[in-house]
From TrEMBL:
InterPro entries cross-referenced by the UniProt entry: ACT-like_dom_sf, ACT_dom, ACT_ThrD-II-like, Ser/Thr_Dehydratase, Thr_deHydtase_catblc, TrpB-like_PALP, TrpB-like_PALP_sf
BP term (GO), one: L-threonine catabolic process
Chemical reaction(s) catalysed: L-serine = pyruvate + NH4(+)
NCBIfam families: ilvA_1Cterm, PRK07334.1
Cofactor(s) required for function per UniProt: pyridoxal 5'-phosphate
Coiled coil: none
Ranges that cross the membrane: none
Protein name per Swiss-Prot or TrEMBL: Threonine dehydratase
């Protein structure tokens, strides 16, 4: 069983006019940051927020009538769930989505919003998958696999057709890897159309499942990652064989790089991406020498990030860049002192966001107090200026959080 360019072209014909043909846009700001000619394929603009609806549409539009009457079932805690639910609604097919019991409420509601029956079962994805298989057998439902299916792979491969049609000069395609369906489809199409093009996969460092499978290593995947969309412990058998044939390299990215990539996409490109969607950018940040001077196409494969998580990422980015810091000053516990501190910070160009007054703890002398302030600043140098000014004014001050004053 394999997937060919002809299969992907047929999938593209099925998808024509049915889903969004997402743009391939030049990443003007990031190009300057990274020193390359970068173009972003914005699958975060799909109606369900990710590329998953492509493969789901191809798979489900080819089902026999009896299967469409009975309905489909999928197991997912995220993008596959929403992709299948959305396509099922568009095709008029009943859909059941099994999700782990701890799935964030927002993801559950987004899936239900497309009209799917959502069943919360199991503490882990593997437990949910077992239940979904059993339910499929009991109710004669068609199981829609997230990646280990030739129709799914062919649907995802249509991305490469669009990218190379929009920019035939691309030298490298950078693609996130979870179960492998996306990169398998893209690699099949791209290598057939342009044999010299380089295909680079990207995995979260805590989930190197495809790399380990290719190299016969013992699986070690596990743990928390911002890129939960590619946090897959065992890749698909079909994608594995295609990756073995057509993918040139797989790079690992740490959590700090993924977080930074999400931040930069928002700040510089004004693009909202989830952790998995930003994994390709994380690889460019972590391995700049690998891509410098080349024409790179990166797939922003999804934008379904929790708003609270996005807020945390952006605030942490401000702290990392020295634009949001927390300082602690030792002051006398007397009237007017707080006003003097605030005046010094304000005169230095800092903006106080929050302030905390500590009097009651035993390690603070009774006639003194500790003042913690969260301050907006311009740069790390600006932080140093504020800290120095407070110290010179007789208020011993040190940095508690954010970029160090020495940076």
């Amino acid at each position: 069983m394999t997937v060919t360019l002809h299969d992907i072209e047929q999938a593209a014909a099925l998808l024509a006019g049915k889903l969004v043909r997402t743009p391939l846009v030049p990443a003007v700001g990031l190009n300057e940051e990274l020193g390359l000619d970068l173009h972003l394929k914005l699958e975060n603009l799909q109606r369900a927020g990710s590329f998953k609806s492509r493969g789901a549409f191809v798979k489900m539009s080819r089902l026999p009538k009896e299967a469409t009457r009975n309905g489909v079932i999928a197991m997912s805690a995220g993008n596959h769930a929403q992709g299948v639910a959305y396509v099922a609604r568009e095709l008029g097919i009943p859909a059941t989505i099994v999700m782990p019991e701890n799935t964030p409420f927002m993801k559950v509601e987004r899936t239900r919003r497309y009209g799917a029956r959502v069943v919360l079962k199991g503490e882990t994805l593997s437990e949910s998958a077992t239940f979904a298989r059993d339910l499929a057998d009991a109710e004669k439902l068609t199981f829609v696999h997230p990646y280990d299916d030739p129709d799914i792979v062919a649907g995802q491969g249509t991305l490469a057709l669009e990218m190379l049609a929009d920019n035939p000069g691309l030298d490298v395609l950078v693609v996130p890897i979870g179960g492998g369906g996306l990169i398998a489809g893209i690699a099949t199409a791209a290598k057939a159309l342009k044999p010299g093009i380089e295909i680079i996969g990207v995995e979260a460092a805590q989930y190197p499942s495809m790399y380990q499978a290719l190299h016969g290593e013992t699986p070690t995947s596990g743990g928390q990652t911002l890129a939960e969309g590619i946090a897959v412990k065992i890749p698909g058998a079909l994608p594995l064989e295609i990756v073995r044939q057509h993918v040139d390299d797989i790079l690992m990215v740490e959590e700090s790089a993924i977080e930074r990539a999400v931040q930069l996409l928002v700040e510089i490109q004004k693009i909202v991406a989830e952790g998995a969607g930003a994994a390709g950018i994380a690889a460019l940040l972590a391995h700049p020498e690998r891509f410098r001077g080349r024409r790179v196409g990166a797939v922003i494969c999804g934008g379904n990030i929790d708003t609270r998580m996005l807020s945390s990422v952006l605030l942490r980015g401000l702290a990392r860049d020295g634009k949001l810091v927390r300082i602690r000053s030792e002051i006398s516990d007397s009237p007017g002192t707080l006003a003097k501190i605030a005046g010094l910070i304000g005169d230095s160009g800092g903006n106080i966001v929050e302030i905390y007054h500590q009097r009651l703890f035993y390690n603070v002398p009774v006639k003194l107090a500790e003042l913690d302030a969260v301050i907006e600043t311009r740069t790390s140098d600006h932080v140093r200026e504020i800290v120095e000014r407070l110290n010179k004014a007789g208020f011993p001050t040190r940095l508690l959080g954010g970029a160090t004053p020495e940076e």
